[in-house]
Structure formats: structure tokens, C-alpha cells
Specification:
The chain is mainly α. The protein has helices at residues 9-21, 47-58, 67-96, 111-118, 120-123, 140-154; strands spanning 100-102, 128-130. Helix 1 crosses helix 3 (67-96). It is globular and about 60 Å long.
């Protein structure tokens, strides 16, 4: 929709950072999905659709988006994601009194998300935030390995299982 290269995440980050650095006006407004739900669930599946509708409704004259408009949309998209992740993570921390926060997966390579979560150590006394280096944040394989590690720690008997290995998109990390 914005004509960005694949993968789009690094370019979204670059454009959003440029908009912030230049203190460009915030024109685009996107929803913060599930931010007010009283649980820890979140989903961004509709956020890209919201971008599609925003572009359709505000740039219907057929002209391509200017660089400034792309930067504005990228910043608002990134801000929407950060707002939801921060709200849900703070709720989880408040509900559990956790002392360690581990964040993995490709999304943590995003500069804004990374810096926002590193600031949690200042806000939550005694909280230890663990974030892999950027080189280890570019592939979901690390996140899957981390989830598997904790699953084995919590359930060591699974190592003795003769069951066929099956993918599980809803692997729980708690008992």
C-alpha cells in the first residue's frame, strides 16, 4: 500500500523515525486494536486493513502518496503497535509482579519498540528486561527456540516422548 520493499518492518521503522526527528505533524489516525480489553490478548490483524481504508478514504484522487505522507502513516502505524504492546505488557507486569521481561522475535528489532521496552527497567523497580541483539531478532526461529526451551523446563517429560513432533501455534509458557 505504501510501496515499501519487503520486508516492510525496517522501512516502517526508518520512515517513522524520520517523521519523529523532523517533528512532522501527526495527521494519520489509526486504531489501537484491543487496547481497552480487560485481558492480555492483542492482535494487529486489522491494523493493515485500517491503513488500507485510511489511504482509500484520504487519497482517493489516484495520486501516489508523498514521502511525507508515507512517513506520517508509518509513524502512526508504529505508534499504534507500541501503544498496544506497552499497555498489554504493563498489565501483565502489574498482574504478575514478574521480575524478568523477555522479548524475542523479529518485532524487537524495531528501534522504537526496543527503546520503549528498555525504558521499563526505569519504570519498574527491580525489573530485568532481556532483549536479544538485533542480529538475533530478525527471525522467528529464535522466538520458537525460546518458547521451546521454557516449555521443556516446565515439562521435562516431553523430552522422553515418542510422539511425532507437531507445530503448535498456541504453545503455552505457563502451567
Amino acid at each position: 500500500m505504501l510501496g515499501l520493499p519487503y520486508p516492510g518492518g525496517p522501512e516502517i521503522s526508518r520512515l517513522a523515525e524520520k517523521a519523529r526527528t523532523e517533528n512532522a505533524p501527526c495527521v494519520a489516525k489509526l486504531p489501537r486494536p484491543m487496547i481497552h480489553s480487560d485481558n492480555l490478548n492483542f492482535s494487529f490483524s486489522g491494523l493493515k486493513t485500517s491503513v488500507l481504508y485510511y489511504i482509500r478514504d484520504n487519497f482517493s484522487n489516484g495520486n501516489s502518496l508523498s514521502q511525507t505522507e508515507k512517513e506520517d502513516i508509518a509513524r502512526e502505524f508504529e505508534d499504534a503497535v507500541v501503544d498496544v504492546l506497552v499497555t498489554k505488557t504493563k498489565k501483565a507486569l502489574d498482574d504478575t509482579d514478574a521480575k524478568t521481561l523477555i522479548i524475542a522475535g523479529g518485532v524487537i528489532a524495531n528501534k522504537k519498540i526496543r527503546s520503549t521496552f528498555l525504558d521499563f527497567e526505569k519504570e519498574y523497580s527491580g525489573l530485568n528486561v532481556k532483549i536479544p541483539t538485533n542480529i538475533m531478532s530478525t527471525d522467528n526461529a529464535l522466538m520458537i527456540a525460546c518458547a521451546t526451551y521454557f516449555n521443556v523446563i516446565l515439562n521435562p517429560e516431553i523430552l522422553k516422548s515418542t510422539k511425532k513432533i507437531m507445530a503448535c501455534g498456541n504453545l503455552r509458557l505457563t502451567q
